Amino acid sequence: MFLALLLLLSALGYLAMRMAVDRIVPMVARHAVELRADASEGLFLQAEQSVQRLQQDLLRRLSQADHDATLARFDALFARSADGLWRLRPELVDAQHAPTLYLHQPPQGLSDSARLRAVAAYDLLREQGPALAPPFFSVYMDFVEDGLMVYARGIDWGSSADAAATNTGYPTMQGSEPRRNPQRKVFWTPVYFDRQAATWMVSVIKPLDWHGQWVGTIGHDVSVQTLIDRTAASHADEGVQLVMSAEGDLIAHPQLARRIAAADGQLKIATLRDPMLDQVQRMVASAGTDTGAGRTADGSQWVAWSKIHGPGWFQIYLLPQSRINHLLMWGLGALFCIGIAGLLPAMWLLRRRVHRLFAVPLKRLAVAVDELGQGGEPRPIAMGSRDELGRLADAFDDMVEELVQQRALQFAHAQALQTEVDERRQFMTRLEEERARLLALLGAMNLGIVFVSSGNRVTYCNAAFLSIWELPAGTTVVGRSTREALEIARRLMVDPQSVLAHLEDSLTDQQRPRQMEIRLFDDRILMHNSYPVHDGHGHFIGQLWVQEDVTRERQTEAQLTRLAEHDALTALYNRHRFGDELARFFHDAERIPAQAALLFFDLDEFKYINDTFGHRAGDAVLNRVAIELRTLVRAGDILFRLGGDEFAVLMPHASQDDAEHLAERIVRRISQTPMAMQDQTVRLTASLGIAHYPTHAGNAEELVAHADTAMYQAKHTGKNRWKVYRIDRDTSREMAGRLAWNDRIARALENGHLQLHFQGVYRAGNGHLAHLEALLRMKDEAAPGQLIMPGQFIDQAEKSGKILEIDRWVINEAIRLLAAHPHLPAMAINISGRSFDDPDLPAYITAQLQRQHVSPKRLLVELTETSAVSDMGDAARFIAALRRTGCPICLDDFGTGFASFAYLKHLQADILKIDGMFIRDLPLERDNQVFVRAIIEVAHGMGKQAVAEFVEDGKTLLMLREMGVDMVQGYHLDRPKADHPAFRLQASAQRP
Description:
By secondary structure, the chain is an alpha+beta fold. The chain is built from 30 helices and 36 strands.
């Protein structure tokens, strides 16, 4: 049985191999011959494309050639040799890089056409020949005049040709004649042996026609030696490779190479009388396809062919059937051996499988049943078969698995229950802790906190809520409705109906927070905020009420607003509020025409009061005047203190008569009011000016300027009187100059015409630079290059209020320079007394210093004594605010006041600058020497430093040093200049 099975398997295997071979062999043979044909035809197709491109390029060059220039170039390139042939001039011959030529001269002489073609072909082959040969053996052009232009790397065809050389009978010329090739197609020549190259060649030719005439050819010589060698290398036992033309000529055959060579490269198959080759030729011809495979009629050979495009040859592969039969016998023997080698282990494996499929499962099943009967957990049998034993084992495994799963589920359920109990216990513990912390937090807050449910019931309130509404600690609010909870505190509310209505309306809004103020009878203000609360799913569950007592904040805001708009001494509105009221009136007047009057007045000789009776007396006078004036103005009129002793009254919707009536009362009241000072009674007078809108002005600026002008007109006519602005009297040079200066100052600020110059302040002891003083200059628009000194425009800037903008410009520029030159010493700047009315200026200086990262110690602020004494209260407050910025304070022009020493305790300056009137001619003025020495001693005694300005000679400097002055400044030391040497020294110190 074993042998019969083995023989049967061998027979079936042989038949299968035989059928597979009949299918596989033709496919493999055809694929192999196609690969060989593709490898051969690539060069041929490339050659065809190349000659077509060369022909088109040559014709293009001929059509574009300059006739006379090309003929001249022919004479430069070629010359006629002694044997009558035209050749390339010897000195131009370069066979490696350029073509060579031989050309017969016709009896009638060489035509212009031939000359033009020779030059164009030479240039074309010289440019493209080195790139074409290789891969081709050569590239050339035939002349119908019997000549040849050819490039083959390293071969000089022109020199090797003699007078007998000709191409007239060449296949290249014969195949190009119009009679033989009327379609002017590319064609291939027969194979020929090139003796000079010692290789078999074939040429591809493109006829060359120009001006409707045949003038030659363009061609390539292509070596087919490699193709022939590949066929010669094939072995008979592996099959025969050969190349055959479509006409039945042998091009290459491994056994017929000599006969093919003797037949000039193309051997007619019909002359061989070889039955095998005849059958091959007939199979290829009758198939009519470029590729194919099959067996010969006698069944002795397998034939596969594939066309080599270009020459039109066929690559043919012959495989003997005997070779296939031999391989089949080897396969049969191998199959027999494999059968023997495979059946013996198969029998052994069969025995093993019977043991594994039956004996072992039965034993495992019996053991598992015993384990299960004893209460254990047997391992799964998992036989994996679908027979009776397999189904029995699967059923047993399913039963065991179900029992195990039930036990595991019971165990897991018990564990899950225990875990859930533990987690809930921990969650409740954490929840209680969080609740305790939340209640402690809410109870410790000063805000009233109330939680309201979606049913408008109070669910929580903290102690602060009860305290805000003055409810006893034991009052129960939780559980009541919101209306009941608020009814308890109704007695405290100023408007309980609107409050309750607003709260009930907010309870219906489940999306937006609400806010309202609740005012109480005890003047408290409560800020009530209600916030809707949603759970994790977005469902509305109630509201959170937060109530805060904002009484103090509102009072602080009101106080700050009052401080920003009121004068700190008299409690009248200040200059800032004055500007706002003017702007508001004129804004409303644009929509609704109205009239208004503006009264400007100041106290005559008020400086005498400060100088004679001191700062406290001056403040008392200003307060008394403010009190008296309040009783005179109407309910709609607004009284302002603009600074110092300057006051103003804005009378909206007042006629000029109303303004004159009030002016008369103000002037009379001030003159009739006695002022008690140090056991003396003093009566002051006032000068007042009136400007009416729209009679005297069209805008706020004109109204202020004309009221100011009218005040000065009153002052110039004797004081203690009032004047209405009259345009016919407003032609004085002073007023015109003031208005012109206002415009010039405004343009200087806008166009950057302000400039800082710097003068050094030096240590008196060693002469070292202590700091720089920044001095303001204005560029003169009318005279470029000229500067205007501050004395010409500062007074006008102070009167118009532009000095406040100038002060901020100086502050910004000085801080910018200090930031740009970190090694520069400190810099002093001068601040006008009008800036005392600007409470925001110290904070502005601090902000600029922080923004530019400049230390406050590097910025000295100088204030004149006269401006400080004229308004001692404002000056003291302003200096205190400046000191908080960290900037040192310098009191300039010290000594000009009558009570300078007394004011020092009120004006907390760090440096005293002695007025220059005491320093000029110091060596000659003994009184000045006594006064200067006293100032220096007092300054040192109070811990301050003294600076002497206007030091203009060496004697003055020596005397000041003897007196112990700390610092000196003046033309003797240096003059103010924009490019002070300190900047250059600082720049050099920064260089590495």
